[in-house]
């Protein structure tokens, strides 16, 4: 497995390298004048490409739960914002339908979701996303709302903590880790938690990834209710698209990918099972067609250049 990229001394100087950029632009079929919703602006890497490809009149409505990402994008894309080509809003993408309506930004040609966490967030110690920096155990995309990782790890019953670590972290040592954490809490910093996890599993034992990696991933997914937001946005995105408009989702976790895949398959199916009947269902007109029967993944070259792309899966669908 490749080593993570070296830490930037100043998180503001960290560069978030967008993944599968060429594949996203082709998949979304971005043309001059296109209107696009980027539900996960992050560092604006994909949005920069979309603005360039849709120039001179194309527009982007960009959302990010993280107010710091929106502030940074405001500086980086000051011209595009001033000219009205970019509207950047601090919001969870689960509010996409309302925000698009508020800004009269529908119907659109393309919608992009590039899920998960950005390099800026990982490299800012105070955000508490990474055990490679010591910081408060937070992990919220929006630090002004919701439940922090510390709230979860310090208050959830041991059994629920174990289930969380098993399901969202896909960590087979979940019970042992949860038992140790429940017995030694509270934890206030990323370093304290990472050290406790290491103790719980008896050290690193030659493992290539730090034993805290999967637990941190599980806590982040839970703190941000990431799977719930994804399930909420998909049915909102579809009616925002023009006929022939495209939706692209990049996921980094098998549970995310499963939600996207199953939703696309349901919407692309001409047969609906009746919820109240054990006997069958009825036929209907599909609402979308699947453009990528198998998810697109990064090339060996991209993985070498940007190890974060290793687990990325891109699925694209088109509104019928
Ligand atoms: C992988 S980064 C996106 C990077 C971006 N595509 C780029 O090229 O710079 C994911 C971003 O999505 C944001 N995010 C994650 N879940 C979100 C949600 N439910 N609503 C809005 N933003 C979300 C995170 O705050 C983070 O900034």
Q: What does this protein look like?
A:
There is one protein chain. With 320 residues, this protein is α/β, with parallel strands linked by helices. The protein has 14 helices and 9 strands. Strands 3-2-1-4-5-9-8 form a 7-stranded mixed beta sheet, sandwiched between helices. Strands 6-7 form a two-stranded antiparallel ribbon. Helix 2 links the parallel strand 1 and strand 2. Helix 12 packs parallel to helix 13. It starts with 20 loop residues before the first helix and ends with a strand. The N terminus is likely disordered. Bound molecules: S-adenosylmethionine. The site of S-adenosylmethionine has 24 residues, from helix 2, strand 2 and helix 12.
Low-confidence stretches: 1-8
Q: What bound compounds does this protein have? A: S-adenosylmethionine
Radius of gyration equals 20 Å
Largest β sheet strand count, sense and barrel closure: 7 strands, mixed
- Beta-strand percentage range: 15-25%
